[in-house]
Amino acid sequence: MNVILFGLVVGFAYSLISVSNMILTARYVISDGMKGGAFASLGTIVAQLIWIIVAILFLRYVGFGIDGHSSIESNITSIFGAGLLFYLAYRVYKAPLPKEDEAGKKRSVEPFAVLFILSMSKYGRFIGYAGLYYLLHIQLDWSDPAKQIILCVATLIGVTVFWGTFVHLVLKKREKFTPRFILKFNRVGAVVLFLMGVFVLISMM
Length: 205
Known about the structure:
Blueprint: H1 2-14, H2 19-62, H3 71-93, H4 100-107, H5 111-120, H6 125-135, H7 145-172, H8 179-203
């Protein structure tokens, strides 16, 4: 049950840092309605599935065995995790608005392809997924592929719920979803990530 819950949380929460994807998806929703938003979201979701699989395989074969930490390993893990959260918070908070001319060019391309390529270009995503899995001390039997599949599916569901909710909100409140509004929304997410990092460090004491 913990694997499913943590997978859902990681998938949903980690999607909060996708500032450029959110801005482009919102533009597709506003210009093309549900169809544009659905295809744009699908492009992001498929790319995230690939990075989730890479993250799980990385943890399996590099030999990080998430279970059974010693106290020293736990402290090192906590410091690494807190540093990762602080870095993600910084990246989200400092994310710039995309240039208008670039956005205009991207709108003429198929939404799925644009968001898929954009998401695949962020090759550091798998490190984020792996770091969050490791930080949460998710208990996995790495000799059991079924549990790894469960973690992958749970995370993917979390990602899908986030993007489905985002598209729905843009459809309902499209006049509010300007790029600057999305940046403000993401900066709230950056504060949440920062506070999570502080909590991780406090829990070491």
